[in-house]
From TrEMBL:
Membrane spanning residue stretches: 6-24
Entry EC number(s): 3.5.2.5
Keywords: Hydrolase, Membrane, Metal-binding, Transmembrane, Transmembrane helix, Zinc
Membership in a protein family: Belongs to the metallo-dependent hydrolases superfamily. Allantoinase family.
GO cellular component, one term: cytoplasm
GO molecular function: allantoinase activity; cobalt ion binding; zinc ion binding
GO terms under biological process: allantoin catabolic process; purine nucleobase catabolic process
Official protein name in the record: allantoinase
Domain Allantoinase composite: 46-100
Cofactor: Zn(2+)
Catalyzed reaction equations: (S)-allantoin + H2O = allantoate + H(+)
Chain's role: Catalyzes the conversion of allantoin (5-ureidohydantoin) to allantoate by hydrolytic cleavage of the five-member hydantoin ring. Catalyzes the first step of the ureide allantoin degradation followed by the sequential activity of AAH, UGLYAH and UAH which allows a complete purine breakdown without the intermediate generation of urea.
Species annotation: Phaseolus vulgaris
Length: 508
């Protein structure tokens, strides 16, 4: 027995010192880097708060690099060239993404989350889960479809309460400009002081009774307040014109709907707006204000008016949406009201010109205009384009849809990050986001542009009503692998972080 003890003693001594060494080293590291402690973080699927990610394709403002990004406490603290390299802070966790693309998270500035009041349509929980699954790290919520609409500081408070602990990505809010508050500056100032990023108005009926349309007179009033706050006005730019109605095959054909909202409606609205934006030039009476044209569909006369206004120095910008770039009116099947939106999807010639404008930089940014409803209001059975709710559901697929249809037109990864991240951040005034740069929030999407998938019933769709999405049934390229919001890994391989730790973004 004694002999046995003497034999195993050296081995036991070695084992004990081995354990003690690693225990001490770990507690030393934990003292130096408290974030190394492997405590559970419900906000993230990754337990580290200080780590590196490395990839052969990182999209930065200086171009695509093979390199590494250091993330600490939610921010990007260094970006270095060299795949697999780590700077001076050794010993941190390194996540190796190989040749997957590391890009700034998408910022979708046009999303209807419909809460409070119409949670059955969409909601903070479902909508932001869909965003996270699609690599969208920030959404800006529209002031309508929720009930009551966001048109005062009190109604913004209801939004913030509804969003509490329910958002998986960061969320900003647009306030509504309606006749009532346009003529009552104190309501408008209260709303802006409470933190909306800007205002949104409609120049035609919105389809929502507590969100009435504004005339150019109301818009001028709104702009004079916005100039003081240096925040933008977002405009649904269509004005109803007299229609010569001819029968185009009944309410189940898309052509019938198309003829009820011709390009002249967009042109009429934009003509009135550019009459006002001349005052936003430097030194003008509305300097500081900015007009942003929502969801441009007409790539002819309407776009020309915007281009001219820009070249004269007006503070004006324009977005279009993936559905105007992916689809053309000729291919929309009879009765398929999933494709109904306003302004409508126009013909293939218009779509080609729209792509050209996007690639030449005349369209500033992209947004989804994700605007779902209840399936029964979409009238999928009846297929009546005139009576069905207008709005496309797409939030989760912003990235693969833009990429799948865009690459044939020469769209690059750099275009994507400008159109979906940098420009939207600048427009919404959220400068700490939108690019992979030192000091910015670590809002990042990791994805594989080359991977193709069928968007069918087996695909994990997080939208509240997947059946409403016009993209169901399509084959797309571009698979989102992982999404980080302020350094939290909020989505990975079909799974979300346990807790919703997105933050409301309020303007100061
Ligand atoms: N009330 C809405 O959500 N309207 C939206 N509907 C669309 N685009 O068809 C919009 O943004 O205009
Ligand atoms: Zn609109
Ligand atoms: Zn909208």
């Amino acid at each position: 027995m004694e002999r046995f003890v003497w034999r195993v003693l050296p081995f036991l001594t070695f084992l004990v010192s081995f354990i003690v060494f690693f225990y001490l080293q770990d507690s030393y590291r934990a003292q130096l880097h408290p974030q190394v402690k492997l405590t559970e973080n419900k906000c993230s699927l990754l337990h580290h708060r200080h780590f590196w990610i490395t990839s052969k394709r990182i999209v930065t403002p200086q171009g695509i690099i093979s390199g590494s990004v250091e993330i600490k406490e939610g921010n990007i603290i260094s970006v270095i060239e060299g795949y697999g390299k780590q700077g001076n802070s050794k010993h941190e966790e390194v996540i190796d993404y190989g040749d997957a693309v590391v890009m700034p998270g998408l910022i979708d500035v046009h999303v209807h989350l419909d809460e409070p009041g119409r949670t059955a349509w969409e909601g903070f929980d479902t909508g932001t889960r869909a965003a996270a699954a699609g690599g969208v790290t920030t959404v800006v919520d529209m002031p309508l479809n929720n009930h009551p609409t966001t048109v005062s500081k009190e109604t913004l408070k209801l939004k913030l309460e509804a969003a509490e602990n329910r958002i998986y990505v960061d969320v900003g809010f647009w306030g509504g400009l309606i006749p009532e508050n346009a003529l009552n500056t104190s309501i408008l100032e209260g709303l802006l002081s409470a933190g909306v990023l800007g205002l949104k108005s409609f120049m035609c009926p919105s389809g929502i009774s507590d969100f009435p349309m504004t005339t150019i007179h109301h818009i001028k009033e709104g702009l004079s307040v916005l100039a003081k706050y240096r925040r933008p006005l977002y405009v649904h730019s269509e004005i109803q014109q007299h229609l010569e109605l001819t029968d185009k095959g009944g309410p189940r054909t898309y052509l019938t709907y198309l003829h009820t909202r011709p390009p002249s409606w967009e042109e009429a609205a934009i003509k009135e707006l550019v009459g006002v934006t001349k005052d936003t030039r430097i030194g003008g009476p509305l300097e500081g204000a900015h007009v942003h044209i929502a969801h441009l569909s007409d790539s002819s006369a309407s776009l020309d008016l915007i281009k001219e206004a820009k070249s004269r120095g007006d503070s004006i910008s324009v977005e279009t949406c993936p559905h105007y770039l992916a689809f053309s009116s000729e291919e929309i099947p009879n009765g398929d009201t999933r494709f109904k939106c306003s302004p409508p999807i126009r013909d293939a010639y218009n779509k080609g010109k729209l792509w050209k404008a996007v690639l030449e930089g005349h369209i500033d940014l992209l947004s989804s205009d994700h605007s779902p409803t209840l399936p029964q209001l979409k009238l999928l059975e009846e297929g009546d384009f005139l009576k069905a709710w207008g709005g496309i559901s797409s939030l989760q697929f912003d990235l693969p849809v833009t990429w799948s249809y865009g690459k044939k037109h020469g769209l690059t990864l750099e275009h994507l990050s400008l159109l979906w991240s940098k420009k939207p951040a600048t427009f919404a005034g959220i400068e700490s986001k939108g690019s992979i740069a030192v000091g910015n929030h670590a809002d990042i999407v990791v994805w594989k542009p080359e991977v193709e998938f069928e968007l069918n019933e087996h695909y994990p769709v997080f939208l509240k009503h997947p059946s409403l999405s016009a993209y169901m049934g399509r084959r797309l390229s571009g698979e989102v692998l992982e999404t980080f919001v302020r350094g939290n890994l909020v989505f990975k391989k079909g799974k979300h972080a346990p807790a919703a730790c997105g933050v409301p973004i309020l303007a100061k």
